[in-house]
Amino acid sequence: MSTQPPPQPSSSTGPTATTPGSAATPAPTTPPPDPPSRGAAPSPAGEAADFRKRARDLFWGFIRQYRREFGLAVGALALVDAMDVLPPLIIKGAIDVLEKGEGQAMLWTLAGVYLAASAVQAVFRYYWRKYFLGTSHIVAYDLRKQLYEHLQTLSFGYFARNKTGELMSRLTNDIDEIRMMFGIGLLLIMDALFYFLTVPFIMLWLSPRLALYVLIPLPLVPIFVTKVGGYIHAMSKIVQERIADLSARAQENFSGIRIIKGFAREEAQIDGFNRLSQTLVDEKLTLARVEAGFHPTLELIVGLGAFLLILAGGQRVLAGEISIGSFVAFQAYLLKMVWPMTAVGMTINIHQRGMASLGRAAEVLDERPEIASPANAVSAASVVGHLEVRGLTFTYPGAAVPALHDLSFTLPAGRTLGLTGPVGCGKSTLLHLLLRLLDPPPGTIWLDGRDIRDYDLASLRRLFGYVPQDTFLFSETIRDNIGFGLPETPAGAADLAARIEACARAAQIHDEVVALAEGYASLLGERGVNLSGGQKQRLAIARALAVEPRLLLLDDATSAVDTDTEERLLTALREVCRGRTAIVVSHRLVSVQHADQILYLEGGRLVEQGTHAELLAWEGRYARLWERQRLKRELESEQPRRQTGLTPTSAGTEGSL
Amino acid sequence: MRNGFFSDDEVVGRFYDARLIKRLLGYVGRYAALAVLALVLVLTGMGLFLVNPWLLGRIVDLGIRGRDADMLVKLGCLYGAVELLIFVVTYAHNYLLQVIGQRVMYDLRAEFFSHLQRMPLPFFDRNPVGRLVTRVTNDIATLAELFSSGIVMVIGDLVLIIGIAATLIGLQPTLGLATLSTVPLLAVAAWFFQTRIRMAFREVRTRIARVNAALSENLSGIRVIQIFTQEARRARRFDELNASHRDAQLDSVFYHSLFTPTVTIINAVCIVVVLLLGGHMHQTGALSLGLLVSFLTYAQNFFHPIRNISEKVTIFQSAMASAERVFALLDEPEESGCREGAALGEVRGEIVFDRVSFSYTGTHEVLHEISFTVAPGQSVAIVGHTGAGKTTITALLNRMYEVTRGRILLDGRDLRDIAKFDLRRRIAVIHQDVFLFADTVLENIRLWDPAVPPERVEQIAREIGADPFIRALPHGYRTELQERGANLSTGQRQLISFARALCADPAILVLDEATSSIDSESEKIIQEAIKTLTRGRTCLIIAHRLSTIRHCDRILVLHQGHLVESGTHDELLARRSFYHKLYELQFL
């Protein structure tokens, strides 16, 4: 991931990092068909300048917001540095006193001043770090919060275009860079500034000629740090990539170990791995050749200064122009100048990377949700659930063929619709449109006689209990997962527990939950219990039921549930669905057979429609599929040891599912 | 990705473990000469480091106070030369240590990786891929760091401290001891704060891991959050984690912020002691002014090595923890019987399963007393519903797993008497989910065997019928496949895996037929390819589509680990039992 461009030492042009080419942002690839807030599409260059400006705005915004903290930080810094500039002068005084052979009293005074200066310095050093570094962590917290909360408002389409990994990088690496800029970056530059404004003048005051000699090699430092530091940073990125290559190679090897062992090709793999490993070592050593010299060079530059000081300064002392004390003080000041010089070089890099990251953060923050509530939205709270679809044609952005083609049907409130058909026939798309994860064309989907686009988005979604095809549960307790959609503090906690349990019972998962060591308090995920696919699906069903939805949407929600359990689950669901509008999407026809109405889709078109009995009588695709699945069930139930012999439920019962 | 930000390796190692260190030093042994040279350089560097403050004192005394301009220039040049030497020596040992660290890392990695290659398959069932990758990359890198910036530098820093102390006492015992009196304070402060900082930092890492895990989970589950309109609540929860991370960071800033002032104060005390006592001694004539200057310079140099050492604790701790994990895996026994055992010679290809039972776990039997014989050159199909144990049979045949009871014979010899490598080269298994490597088509077919020339690979591809589509790829046989062959269709991936098997020219072929259906055009090509593959070989075909096995010499019907029926297609159909139902299902 080349999120950071190589730092540009000549920073007169400012950070050039936010050009779309260099930033790992999918900026203008597939803009949504109708970007409401983007305005006229800006040229790439204009866009880059835009984000640079936005980055600057954000930067100053944070500075303003924490002006008190940053102000205190600068104040503390000034005091610390002032106290830090004093000691060489004190030592100078002491040495001069000693040289002249003056009294002990003066020495004691100087020692006292030295201690006092150090004490003041110590106290404010604490505040200095606290306000600079502490505030930078607070800024990082703010920005992370802002970014996350903003991301939550963005639509389905945005997350389809941007991989989770890339967004994660915004929220981790970029925030780190930004924090560095506000913390150590600001600290270093202010520190350096203070030293530049004081130390050279003291040196000039002590001896103008000597000051000129000694300060000559110092400008080398920032140039060196920027150039070489930039090179080291760029080279480290390459090394990081090699490490990534190596780890990808190892990953592939372990995943394909069956093939490797099966063909007895271990040796070839070892050779290949070692070659990559060698490349990594070579790159790392190339980097080391430069890196090993970084600090020694800085020290050498100081040494060079000291060398000049001894030759030139010694002569000055001999000529009687300066005292020995001044000579020693000079040496101390020389040492003190190295750090700020180094800091300048480092800050340039830190600032460039920080601003680039801030630009990318701004880009995320500027993104507007594609699907939002209309201006004068109507609350959907009192919707009964009468659904009507009229001539719905939907094409995914960029797709050539519509995913749904001229679909029309009516589903009266309280009834159940079954939806089936081969993979990719548009079943899930229809559910996504209903939930407004995707936006249907105006006037195509009506709920209680009103276009769903007119409803307030949140209140619309609250109508639905949705069980997605790919079950997503959170690494939290089972209780929290089932109660996911419930308000945090309903009438009573006992009430809540009862409700969760009732839903778990209906979803046929209660018994298995109770059997766990920690019951409903069991954690899910890597650090908790591992559930089977079927158990996860049933939890997702319980989660959807818990919100007591007006409309229940099941998207192939029982695909991983075993046959016996499915049987019980379907019966229970029929009970739950009574009085609710429900749409059941499934490949397994047993799940839809009791629906009031069944649609068979193919390639986005409605090809068969009717009740189970009607469709069987029609002897079309549905009937063929039914026969096939019946045989398969029969086969599965035929077991050498376990002769249960399930009889398929008879069709035509009065239930609503 | 979901919890990828949690590392399972947050275990804190001991600071020092003699057993592990000894074992680790074994790896450095190969570079003993380099290591000794590095150590000598480090010590030289430290020695040089001691020279210049003393030289500065001499310059003050002899050059300036002695009013000797020649001496001044001479000593000044010496000072410059020492600086230059320091540069050379530091650069050299920095680089040398990297070289040693990198070489050790390479060696360890090579040893570790080849060890893993030689582990039996059940090992990979036990150890998730992600964990093994972490061992190979992170853990070993941590160990290398121990050598490149750990051990030797700690020795160097210790020597420097001792060196400064010795020099000070040597130059002026009374003042030397007085100066050193603050060093224990400095060491205690460094130890105290570094421990706190380390703990705070560990807390920071745990909490940022939680923040990132929550982020990654919430972003992956963003749809569920939006559909259930839980944005506000999720944001609040995230805020708690985010704030707790911020607070941990502020804690660590707190300790940092106290540490530096403490050092400032201790340093000031030290300087003042030198100044007062040294000044007094100067006045009584016991100390030259130059020596006082030297003392003042030395006094400021203590802190550096002490802090360095206390910072190295982290490197030692994590290296010990990594070493523990790496060595634990290195000590697991490798797969035995790979090369040992009788050579196979010419294989006729007769397979006998003799009352074979198998269990992965030791409790639940996946195969139960299976017996059958396949004559050389025969094709036998194994059919059955999911979970019948079909795939397990193939894994037993090439000894990825060993039978629990019973035995398998190849040409009348127990498989256990045959070297595994030899056996596996004669048996090609084609898996239903084709695994392709991120390498060229060529290498994917010949599996990096340089003994197979590209022309031979092309010829094989032509026989299989894969040549036309391979040629149509951007760089033909040299086209790099994406991870897992994502740029190929299912049928094309199948054909490459067939070519791979044919390339190995096995005596026995085991084909686990792909389940996913492909278009009829590809289907025809694949059926042709299977005919080519099976010609003249003993074949076991695990069939999911019964259409492909009608011509097999015999069909074994497996159900829940039992062999329930066997016979030809027509015989089985005539019996109208289990196979019949399977068959009916296929043709609906």
Automatic annotation (TrEMBL), chain A:
Location of the protein in the cell: Cell membrane
Stretch list, region Disordered: 1-47, 636-657
Keyword field contains Translocase: no
Topology term for the membrane: Multi-pass membrane protein
Annotated GO MF terms: ABC-type oligopeptide transporter activity; ATP binding; ATP hydrolysis activity
Domain called ABC transmembrane type-1: residue spans: 72-353
InterPro entries (UniProt xref): AAA+_ATPase, ABC1_TM_dom, ABC1_TM_sf, ABC_transporter-like_ATP-bd, ABC_transporter-like_CS, P-loop_NTPase, Type_1_exporter
Principal cellular location given in the protein's record: membrane
Compositional bias (Polar residues): 642-657
Gene Ontology CC annotation, any one: plasma membrane
Compositional bias annotation for Low complexity: 10-27, 37-46
Keywords from the named record: ATP-binding, Cell membrane, Membrane, Nucleotide-binding, Transmembrane, Transmembrane helix, Transport
Residues of the ABC transporter domain: 387-628
Transmembrane segments: 70-91, 106-128, 180-204, 210-232, 298-318
Protein name listed in UniProt: Lipid A export ATP-binding/permease protein MsbA
TrEMBL record, chain B:
Subcellular compartments: Cell membrane
Positions of the ABC transporter domain: 351-585
Keyword Transport: yes
Pfam families found in the cross-reference section: ABC_membrane, ABC_tran
Record-level Gene Ontology MF annotations: ABC-type oligopeptide transporter activity; ATP binding; ATP hydrolysis activity
Keyword field: ATP-binding, Membrane, Nucleotide-binding, Transmembrane, Transmembrane helix, Transport
Domain called ABC transmembrane type-1: residue spans: 36-318
GO cellular component: plasma membrane
Location, primary (coarse class): membrane
Regions that span the bilayer: 31-51, 71-96, 146-169, 175-193, 253-278
Membrane topology: Multi-pass membrane protein
Descriptive protein name: Lipid A export ATP-binding/permease protein MsbA
KW Transmembrane helix (keyword) present: yes
